[in-house]
């Protein structure tokens, strides 16, 4: 099951550049939360702080508190543990190109020491079913590589790989921006279904997509969280003029 | 910046203002026809109806295109929804003008008698409501729109008074029934014009403030 995320006074820097400025918000469990804003506003930095990916950049640092469930991920957990509990899907599908479809999905578990074939088979099937990919790949799980799939299938494979390790949170950074409309619709349907099991945070430039899939939406601008409210409120009658100007295309 | 989209919104607003001008002129003409019993003015009202209907379809299509092609959000989305609703109300104002002109033409077949109803005053009030609601739309002024809502009660009260007075007249002088019934229908048409102006004002408030103030005073609400 998904867990809620509480962020308190989160700041992030790249070198001297202050990219996130005092972010406070609460992301509800088992829901989809969308983050929108113009390029460079800090939304991707923010999600990278949620699973400690930000600190993989040697010149980057973050300060503040991020609690996932009851765990302060900067104090009480190692980066490896954090990334197991918080999966991430990127803009460009990135399956391991030389691995089979099966091994792509099983890779996280194998890395964590699982070797029981029956368990692995079960997890691979369950994950591929959850990612709405099972029916399309079940006949060549081990004979085809992840790279042989279409872009949309590769992205769903990456989602299957992320959920195979049974995370509580799924972060998605522009997960459909490189996909055609049909594949995008499949990913959006998938997000809708995955909310039952996971807490989802999705960064998107596509405001219609945010409106379709998310219960809550946050608008970032110049490193600030300008507004965080129900998606309905944000897209029909936002409280802040800057949010309204952005979503109506008056700037950005 | 979505410059082309925002130009399209301005064009949509201008089209609706043309529609508003036509509907307002139709209602003014129908009242003038009542006052003067001039059947030529009635003809002008009848002739204006197809143009109003044509423009209604054109505005709806333009609004539909913007919804489909531009996927507007927030105040822009509310604006387009308001335009669609206001457009329908203005077309109905045009219909009311035609209804009044039909009654005036009918009244021409009977002798001109003094009736216990102040149609010009009701017309003046209903027209003022339409004008004020449209001014609120032009200026995006929710407060001005709100002031229109308060005027509707007065128009309703005048229509109720007309009903009472004309019913009594029919009882007293049944030979005046045709004239009284026509006047009653005109009073009812003007009351409906006031309702349409109220709808326009509510749509302006929705557009500007995002607040749905419809049906606040209805019996069921």
Automatic annotation (TrEMBL), chain B:
It holds the Pfam family PhoU. Keywords: Cytoplasm, Phosphate transport, Transport. InterPro entries: PhoU (IPR028366), PhoU-like_sf (IPR038078), PhoU_dom (IPR026022). It is found in: Cytoplasm. Residues 18-103, 120-204 form the PhoU domain. Transmembrane segments: none annotated. GO terms for cellular component: cytoplasm. It comes from the Bacteria. GO terms for biological process: intracellular phosphate ion homeostasis; negative regulation of phosphate metabolic process; phosphate ion transport. Belongs to the PhoU family. Plays a role in the regulation of phosphate uptake. Homodimer. This is Phosphate-specific transport system accessory protein PhoU. It comes from Terriglobus albidus. The lineage of its organism: Bacteria, Pseudomonadati, Acidobacteriota, Terriglobia, Terriglobales. The gene is phoU.
